[in-house]
Amino acid sequence: RYKSVVTPRRAAVAIACCWIVSFLVGLTPMFGWNNLNKMRRTQELNGSHTDSVIKCQFETVISMEYMVYFNFFVWVLPPLLLMLLIYLEVFNLIRKQLNKKVSSNSNDPQKYYGKELKIAKSLALVLFLFALSWLPLHVLNCITLFCPSCETPHILTYIAIFLTHGNSAMNPIVYAFRIKKFRTAFLQIWNQYFCCKTNKNITTTTTTTEQGN
Length: 213
Fold this sequence. Notes:
mainly alpha, Rhopdopsin 7-helix transmembrane proteins, 81% helix, 0% strand, transmembrane helix
């Protein structure tokens, strides 16, 4: 039922909703959930009436309550756990079908579910890399919020931030190496827009790649 349920229009609406939610969540600090009022109260308690100088650091400007309670506990951890449960169920169903197929001695189901298992493993790898890249930074944020007296080495913070940025570069690489259709599309884009090859050359390159695989 996938083709009847996941239509291009529904896919476009889902993608648009993801972007809208991302913008709202990401721009929440600009709507007022930040450390500006805390800094002003501190300034008033100190009896200073001059303009305060804000230290240019992420933790100085962004509220850790926002990062932990709203960002992590609402928009990162629950979806991550939900996706984990979904993938476990997907793998369970595929393996059940593969076992049925072995007993029926049918080659087509074996090929179909084997392909589905490979794709599921690729997407699970993307999920694993996401967790590996983002959880360290969120754990450090939790330490900063719940244990203010604890000092974390700056090098750990820099590594955690680097991992979150590097995660954006991991997904295309995983898709290209693990999923043939993505690899073919990336080759077409590369040849057309970076190597300035004609459509004929693109078709030839794509055909050669498919034959080689």
